[in-house]
Fold this protein.
Amino acid sequence: MEKAKARSEALARRKNLDPAYAKRASVSITERFLAMFQAFDSFLLYVSFKGEVDTVELINALYGMKKAVYLPCVRGDGIELGLYKGENSLICGAYGICEPAECTDYESIDVAAVPGVAFDRRLMRVGWGKGYYDRLLAAGRIRKAVGLAFECQLFDSIKAEPHDIPCDMLVTETDIYRRNS
């Protein structure tokens, strides 16, 4: 399936999710993620918007465990990372998405929760089309990239381009998918 078609179809599917179901599914995804990765020390998360898997509980849970939680800050054509220091440390950034007021340097991150509009069974992801996460993942400073999505965002196959970087895992409300398994 072409990226544009997958993006359009996945957005329509996500928009049609019952809000109560999406909330329960987000809790399930958060629980699965924490069960697998809470032993790690550093995380890149994102503040959800436009019907994405709700990440607020996940951010707060990891922050409460004294983990290093980074969030993206959109800067021009790329993203930098800022350390999460509680809800009051966020500002309204690009696209109306909350982000840290200040960016910071980092050496590496153990686990990145990667947003996506659509995913396929090879764990290729389709985002909003700006390439922010592909460039970030290509830099090699993220040890494990884990997509978070509702099951309705999963397709059998989406055409990938040479610059597209697959996730290592995908966590949905019903399953955990691993690349090359």
